[in-house]
Amino acid sequence: MILTTTADVPGYEIGEILGVVSGNTVRTKNLGKDIMAGLKSLVGGELEEYTTMLTDARAEAYNRMVNAARDLGADAVVNIRFTTSQTMSTAAELLAYGTAVRLVPKK
Q: Where are the domains of the chain?
């Protein structure tokens, strides 16, 4: 499957638009990560615990989007975007979305 943030794929035309596909996950902080982040905030620097948590969440949302595209019979997802929103003071949603399409080679 071709996955891209661009609207088109070099060498191909969009033969059919199957629709918007998305994948999301909501993650919450936990006490252990909050304690480590609090200590780190005293000296400054990257909050690695949160970076890892959000990286894992982004990958999960991305994979769910890809699976949704496969379920539609897509061979590509174009215009992929990511967004994050706070759902409560200790939780965030990560959303990956794009347009599932079927491609045909250019002639």
A: 2-105
Alpha-carbon distance of 29 to 31, in angstroms, equals 7
**Angstrom distance (rounded) from CA 55 to CA 45:** 17
Buried b (16+ CB within 10 A) or exposed e, 17-39: ebeebbbbbebeeeeebeeeeee
* pLDDT tier, 73 (very low <50, low <70, confident <90, very high otherwise): very high
Cβ-Cβ contacts under 8 Å for 8 (sequence gap 6 or more) = 14, 78
Tens of pLDDT, residues 18-55: 999 999 999 887 655 555 555 556 666 777 878 888 89
**Burial of 94 (C-beta count, 10 Å sphere; 0-12/13-18/19+):** buried
Domain 2-105 part of CATH 3.90.1150.10: no
Q: Is the distance from CB of 80 to CB of 99 less than 8 angstroms?
A: no
